[in-house]
Amino acid sequence: MKIASLTVASLYGAALVLSPVAEAAELKIIAGGSMTASMNAIAPEFEKATGHKLVIHFDSTPNIITRVNSGTRFDAVVVPVDVFKDAAAKARFAAGPTIDIARVGYGVIVRSGAAKPDITTADAFKKALLDAPSVTYLPTSAAGAYVTKVFERLGIADALKAKTRVAATPAGIPEAVAKGEAELGVFLTNVLIAPGVELVGPFPGDMQQELVFTAAVAAETKEAGAAKALIDYLRTPAATAVIKAKGMTPG
Hints:
The chain has helices spanning 2-18, 36-50, 61-69, 87-90, 122-131, 142-154, 157-161, 172-178, 224-233, 237-245; strands at residues 26-32, 53-59, 76-80, 99-104, 106-111, 135-137, 164-166, 184-188, 197-202, 211-217, 249-250. By secondary structure, the protein is of the alpha/beta class. A six-stranded mixed sheet has the order 2-1-3-10-4-11. A five-stranded mixed sheet has the order 7-6-8-5-9. Helix 2 (36-50) links the parallel strand 1 (26-32) and strand 2.
């Protein structure tokens, strides 16, 4: 059965590559900032396989909602599921089920070679955050909003405000830690995989949660077929292998 499954998957991938494209489309895609590494690696292969071209705008959840609701033209999204909780934004997507593409949990990093604090329990995690002279994350995002809730749950949100170095982008979190501008970086673990930093570990116990990235076609797109082809491609073995390699769990 396993061999048969692989054969079907291989044939499907081959069909994507070999099927002639009646008319190549330029797809405008909106994606969550934490999908940057995965989507940038997948895009060239999708373009090669289908003939379509991707123009991807990466952003945080609040900005994505604003962009979707502003009337900006787009063809499909690969965004945090939180976007779909906004009624106005949800109305701009085609009717039908959305497709989960990837998910990832939260963790903590330190500069390479630095001592790693204990974060294996809620109390230890709280102590590590309070003891750190500086902490960096991106509050204005779906992931950052959850991190803030964890700080509130630990009862240290106010105490951390004075020593929080707010990152402008997800990539800015490991960069700040690698440069010594912040002692701890707190965010989605796939974003924290970067040169110059080391993962301390995941959030402890029930404080851990996965952020799901979901795909949907725009209701007003004129390239529905090509947009659906992208979403289908994101579920192929080739694409899911990339998603795994970039530190996320497919589906």
